Target: GT2 family glycosyltransferase
Amino acid sequence: MNRVPISPPAIPVLSAVYKRPLWSVMIPVYNCNQFLKETLESVLCQLLPEGEMEIEVVDDASTDTDVEVLVKQVGKGRIKYYRQKENVGSLKNFETCIVRSKGELIHILHGDDLVRPGFYDKLGSLFNKYPEAGAAFCRYNCIDENGKSLYTKSPESKHDGILENWLFTIAERQHIQYAAIAVKREVYEKLGSFYGVNYGEDWEMWVRIAKHYPMAYTPAILADYRKHVNSISSNKYLTGQYLKDISFVTELIQNHLPSESKESILKKSRKYYASYGIKMAGNTWTALKDKQAVDAQIKHALTLYKGPWTYWLTAKLYFKLALSKLWHSVSQL
Model:
């Protein structure tokens, strides 16, 4: 089984015999027991009837708890449950979510993220007002494992509407999290599912959609994206693998851009993520004091982009590390 498809997996068109709900809330999970109950409750409290919204947990063979029992306890029959026969990896699990969905609009909500009251009503109204949109998304708040706010995403626009020149904006760097976006099923049917990498695969997808469709937006903060040490992305930070994945995604994104824009957007994107990688290396040192992890991230960051700014950031970080080690040595005297 290919856990990371090398091209977008095809999504079959639904048969016309289905009586379809408007929404499919598909919840991929893998070992996120401590957060799943809260995630499910955040959807249920929206109080959309079953005929209007299907809710299904798609379990990638979790081992931390009996997810089916938890779904039954929380959902009381309102939430469907499907378990993979074996662990297939995040991309194949997302593909399963899309294939199993019956709704016209698909929301892939990870089992550790949350929606706020009004999410589905608001995004549904955007699709009604802008029927040409292939996807609609909102601002989001980032929280930690305890639900504490870390930051709030800056707005893309002050008002609801179709975003202008969005392809070039989203191609430069990631602006959207899964929790904050809904996509028409027909869009996935036309463009296929996620592929290529396990980190940044959603960024490529949002660019792919922006190439073919307008995207609607609201600056209302209606979703919470959770960062925590057990998340899939966090496991790649210590080795710098996430920066290698981002580098690969920047090349994939080139396929969606007009030739006259490719070089400038690629340069901006790589410069931004090189700076981001150096910043994350600093965060790694602050949290873990792991010099090897810092070195790995710096190495991959400078592979993305070399220039006066990134060299300055690197020198500044290593000076900070040297001071930290010196202070520690002095304090031991």
Remarks:
- The mean pLDDT is 94.
